[in-house]
UniProtKB/TrEMBL annotation:
Cofactor: heme
Annotated signal peptide: none
UniProt-listed InterPro entries: Cyt_P450 (IPR001128), Cyt_P450_CS (IPR017972), Cyt_P450_E_grp-I (IPR002401), Cyt_P450_sf (IPR036396), Cytochrome_P450_fung (IPR050364)
Biological source species: Serendipita vermifera MAFF 305830
Protein name listed in UniProt: Cytochrome P450
Length: 457
């Protein structure tokens, strides 16, 4: 390289030619970028509801008829949001362009309550939950309340960040306190301080107990045991375990509940699922993880449970670092890209009869052309949910086992609810309202199957 450079300096004519060539290439590239910028500036934003001074589209948001388009732009105070109703557009933006669309919008309130729930047995073994069951339940419920409030509420501090410095007694400082019930009395807690405390509890407390059980040899086989053996009791081990159960608990619970709800509402589906398990296991054992490829109908029920009345109606938001052009529309840098999971999984143009729970749609010719509800639910590209594989593998096995052992029926004296009358919570994680039922053993062999499974473990 050095000798080539020396030859150029020995010939002024060659050096001049190279200089002109580099300058020409630079000029052409600059002009190309300028034309692209001019073109993008002339493109419209995706269509959306009317915008008003200061408040943007707040008065019209949400509005159902705008969701009928593949892509919608909404201006909220302090936030430019793009709602994506098309799976194809979501794939194009979030999977094919991940380097530019994998950012996230972290408002002040979201930053303060960035906590989650536990998949404690997988992370820390079976003994620890029996020692801390009530604590985990209490922390999880409170964490869910904080998380839902931060993600779904409108917080003025996210627009005017300087408000975080005002005293909590001022009228505009509601975000600094939350009213909650404790032992029958109403108390005010600083939301940020309380969520920070919760974050420490769910990370540090189980880890310290896991270390003690590991030292005494009582921890048993679990991820914590493996990590402590290999890396020791350091902060990286604690954080790895924390990420696992923070990411995996809500998704696994919601998925299993959706599956059980389907067995309750659709007894014919429950019957077919049971018959398939018996064909594979001969009725002499419980289904195993390795049986999954031989359970295509239950696989279809699992997918349909994710699709029908999606339990994550809004996906994980992304933020684009640079301007993006899609379908002739300009999405300005810094926009929140919000995949409308509920719409994608109930779009009549894609599913034909989205209101019907029909697992067979995933067994027909051309089923491979349908979006995979698990992919739609768990997110795209670099922002995919970290608990996806845990929720899928664990949840499917739990669902198949329940279908093999039990019929799910209403409580005694109550009728089975008609599917079209089923109600769901209007929350970040959508769950069945008033879900109550009985697990009725399929036959007298249930206890024997459970004993065999326990002996195999």
């Amino acid at each position: 390289m050095e000798s080539a450079f020396n030859r150029l300096t020995d010939s002024p004519l060659k050096l001049a030619g190279v200089t002109v060539s580099i300058a020409t290439i630079g000029y052409v590239l600059a002009q190309g970028f300028r034309r692209m910028a001019e073109k993008s500036n002339k493109l419209p934003s995706p269509p959306g509801p009317p915008r008003h001074f200061l408040i943007g589209s707040l008065l019209q948001f949400p509005n159902d008829h705008f969701y009928q388009r593949d892509i919608v732009s909404v201006e909220l105070p302090g936030i430019s949001m793009v709602i994506i109703n098309s799976y194809d557009i979501a794939q194009e933006l979030m999977i094919k362009r991940p380097n530019n669309t994998a950012g996230r919008k972290v408002g002040y309130m979201f930053f303060e309550v960035d906590i989650g729930n536990l998949v404690i047995e997988v992370a820390h073994g079976t003994k620890l939950p029996t020692m801390m069951d009530k604590d985990f339940t209490s922390w999880n419920l409170e964490a869910m309340e904080f998380g839902a409030s931060a993600l779904t509420s409108f917080w003025v501090v996210d627009i005017f960040n300087f408000l975080r410095f005002i005293p909590k007694w001022m009228p505009a400082a509601r975000f600094k306190s939350v009213i909650s019930s404790s032992f029958g009395s109403l108390i005010y807690r600083r939301m940020g301080a309380r969520s920070t405390w919760l974050n420490k509890q769910v990370r540090h407390v189980p880890f310290e107990m896991a270390k003690a059980l590991h030292k005494s040899g009582e921890l048993g086989h679990c991820l914590a045991n493996d990590l402590l053996d290999e890396f020791g009791p350091n902060d990286d081990t604690m954080e790895a375990l924390g990420v696992l159960y923070l990411a995996g608990s809500d998704t696994t619970t919601a998925a299993v509940m959706a599956f059980i709800n389907a067995l309750m509402l659709f007894p014919e589906v429950s019957k077919k699922a049971y018959e398939e398990v018996v064909r594979v296991t001969d009725g002499i054992r419980l289904p195993r993880v390795s049986d999954r490829p031989n359970l295509p109908y239950i696989e279809a029920v699992w997918k349909e449970a994710f699709r029908w009345k999606s339990f994550f109606p809004m996906g994980i938001p992304h933020v684009n670092a640079q301007d993006e052009i899609i379908n002739g529309y300009l999405i300005k840098a810094g926009s929140v890209l919000n995949p409308n999971t509920g719409f994608m999984l109930s779009d009549p143009k894609v599913w034909g009869d989205p209101e019907n729970f029909r697992p067979e749609r995933f067994l027909m010719d051309g089923a491979d052309l349908l979006p995979n509800p698990l992919t739609v639910t768990f997110g795209y590209g670099m922002r995919v949910c970290a608990g996806m594989h845990l929720a899928d593998r664990t949840g499917f096995h739990i669902g198949a086992t329940i279908a093999a052992l039990y019929g799910v029926a209403p409580l005694e004296g109550k009728r089975r609810l008609k599917p079209e009358l089923a109600e769901f919570t209007d929350t970040f994680i959508r769950l069945p309202v008033g879900f109550e039922g009985r697990f009725i053993p399929r036959d007298k062999r249930v206890l024997d199957l459970l004993r065999i499974a326990e002996m195999e473990d």
